Amino acid sequence: MFNLLSDSILLHIRTFILGDISTHVSLSQTCRRFRKLYENDESFWQLVCFSAGFGRPRRRGNPDEHLTWRQVAHVLSSHHRTCEIRSCRDAHLYFAKRYRTSSRRSIKTPVSAQQGVVFHSLYFYLHCNQLSPGEAFAYIPVPDAISILLTHLPTFPECRNSQYGPLCSHPNASCTFATFPAVDTISFQDADGRTFLNVSNSDGCTILDVNRALAELIPRDQAPVEVALAHYRDLVQTSGLSLAQFADMVSEQKGFLDDHEYPFLNELVAQA
Ligand SMILES: [Zn+2]
Fold first, then answer.
1. CB 176 within 8 Å of CB 94
2. What is the 82 CA–ligand 1 centroid distance (Å)?
3. Structural domain range at position 97
4. Which residues of 77-111 are buried (b: 16+ CB within 10 A; e: fewer)?
């Protein structure tokens, strides 16, 4: 039946399922004709990711060496099938209703205005001390150095699929936009209204962009170092490896952007 339809009709039909990444990935692999329709159509893959609530986090080092939008869609579709953590698998659904009902639903690029911007629940979950429901209404939780640090540390070896791995081993949570609507810059201000951090990504700031910018603010003083080293030593003990072997093994696991750096791992190696 598809053979009877023209390319322009097929291109029109695929816009009806914009935010359904897995269906587009499957369709793009179905037959030669679909492969050709999807091949090198970066702006369509971007629209598919964007419509589902996903962006493309910046890479460390050279941010221009990013994944293509097609690669992002494939990584997300594949991780969605295997990840055991629901808040990662379904992270993009948090704003689904807003995407459906907002007049901004058709935007293809992030906006710069910050008025009316709402943070994703993962931003609070990953970076702030957990509050009881009563407290949550009393004040806006502020990021906490140790909570942020824990999202950068490795997993326990017996966990399947990096269940407690660093955030960057979970592409779906990482690529989810940190805000609705997606914005290209998020400014963080202290209690006196002074800006202490700007997070920027011209493709829209994601949870991972915010997470990494916050991690840069972790003070290199005793408390975070001790938490990280105690965590590493627990893992070393479970693994049966030497400190140096463990550090080598861990630093090989660099997440889906192949760029993760483990905090205070050098301090651990120095003790070996
Ligand atoms: Zn995951």
1. yes
2. 8
3. 40-270
4. bebbeebebebbbebbebbeeebeeeeeeeeeebe
- Ligand 1 centre distance from Cα of residue 115 (Å): 30
Q: What is the CA(79)–ligand 1 centre distance, in A?
A: 6
Instruction: Single out the residue of 250, 258, 248 nearest to residue 157, CA to CA.
Output: 250
How many Å lie between the centroid of ligand 1 and the Cα of residue 167? 8
Residue-level pLDDT, tens digit, the chain, 272 residues: 667 777 777 777 777 777 789 988 988 888 888 888 888 889 989 989 998 999 999 999 877 788 999 999 999 999 999 998 899 999 999 988 887 777 655 556 777 766 788 999 999 999 987 655 555 555 567 788 999 999 999 876 555 555 567 999 999 999 999 999 999 999 988 888 899 999 999 999 999 999 999 999 998 889 999 999 999 998 898 888 899 999 999 999 899 999 999 999 998 888 87
Residue 262 Cα to ligand 1 midpoint, Å, equals 18
Residue with tokens 């702030």: 128
19 found inside a domain: no
Total domain count, the chain? 1
What is the whole-number distance in angstroms between the Cα of residue 72 and the centre of ligand 1?
Answer: 14
Query: Considering the domain boundaries, does residue 110 fall inside one?
Result: yes
Q: How far is the CA of 206 from the centre of ligand 1 (A)?
A: 15
Residue 131, domain member (yes or no): yes
Kindly state whether residue 10 falls inside one of the protein's structural domains.
no
User: 3-state DSSP call for residue 212?
Assistant: helix
Distance 7 CA to ligand 1 centre (A): 35
